[in-house]
């Protein structure tokens, strides 16, 4: 029974019985309505499991899972999760029984039907022998708990198998009911290989947990095709979506300056862009894009009800302005915005009085520049002193955004002492290179197993070979080779990270896979459209094979004629300008409002294999990025003058003689100057 409370103040001045009865009924209905509205607001609960240091006897290497905790916790708090409703268990607490008990206490006992729950796991994963015949390859996927051994041991099993994990999640879903919502994030992997070490920690192993002589069954009656096969829709159960850091055959690499889980970092960045209308599929699309920048060798996976709105439609969008989190002095504050929101040092700010809804009619109180950017908070220096009372209520708006600099962390692993000294000298004179002992973004190696002693090799942290060069050539030639590769990597990394949104310039594209056959007896071709599912995997990742072909379909969701350029960034850091084509002028690449245009140019897929990214840049005036990238390497006086701020930004990152200095003004731009729509896709060899 719902208790009803009467407001006697409003019900006391009654003149007639009729008026009294009407007012009484009104009060009852009003209070019932208020109680029901309050009851319908769901609570949000989360359980974060992070294992950095496994029991010494297990054989597992330590991880940096502890660094995932502040990322996930802060991202959830910004989505309305109360700190008291976020539980964290670490290391020794995270045994199999400890995890299952915490799930019971936090996500069932505390949570009510209709609530929103999140389960996050950071740690190792492993494939274990299938014990019920539901796996096509004869192995279950499992979470490696604190005391799970890497090598097979008989007796009590300490891994948390996908089946048992799934049963517990189904119990949570049943408790939450059809009006509830459950999100699962697993930042682990279960197998995979790497050609060399030194790339940073990996979460997972090639070792399978099975007794000697175990032969996986191949004729299973029930085939479990998903990574964990979670989130199947069932009547009466809460919808559930699940994200995984990599495919079952891939390693999951820790990454970034934070040395954290790639999925944890990508999830935090993607969630920062989400709003109440974002679906889990849309969230996963952004996760996939973020991971293509950080760990291009990984293919994240997703399962479950991906077309549902995240958190049941209760997600909070990115704020349009910020307030001072901390007042350090009359000219120094911190604001709640940082690298997770793609804002870096050098970004300029405008400080306005509170309640400034139209900046065009109000003069800013001060300007500021971000001097240090953290993940979720940044420190800013004002150009004018303001009182503490003013700073407490002021609204802070982004003015021109810096998307980071072009510095590349480089790790050198060279056995030849003379060559090592030579390479380190070259790097010390390169403004883009930052020497680090371990976990660089780029590795320069010589003398290791599998490498010729007569050459040195440049590779990415994702184990992608950028090039090899003989160490018997001149110092000048070696320096030119190293500097060119580092500049190319820096430029491509910057472009991959570039994310600018303006809904008024909303132009997107779609892949149209095609079947292409030469007609017999002439040079004509027979072209047939193929379904999109022919190039997508179960998680929606786009995967092309060698010799596949495609067109692009462009859609203008805006209200005016817009111009576009299309770039492709290859795994080897080559930047291709697809449009405008060689035979086109910038004015040719336009699309009218509401139109959908299929471009006739056919693209054929080939090496290099790995993760590519295509970016469509839309603006109100014509762009000519072909001119910018075709002139790479020209002296400053020879480079054509840019037509708009975005071309100027691209010219800035295309210089090879220097690195952009934070706060120089050359690498900042109005955040809504253009709209960038990005889609990553993977290239793999042709299946035989």
UniProtKB/TrEMBL annotation:
Residues 44-309 form the Peptidase C14 caspase domain. InterPro entries: Caspase-like_dom_sf, Metacaspase, Pept_C14_caspase. GO terms for molecular function: cysteine-type endopeptidase activity. One of its GO terms (biological process) is proteolysis. Pfam families: Peptidase_C14 (PF00656). One of its GO terms (cellular component) is cytoplasm. This is Caspase domain-containing protein. It comes from Lacibacter cauensis.
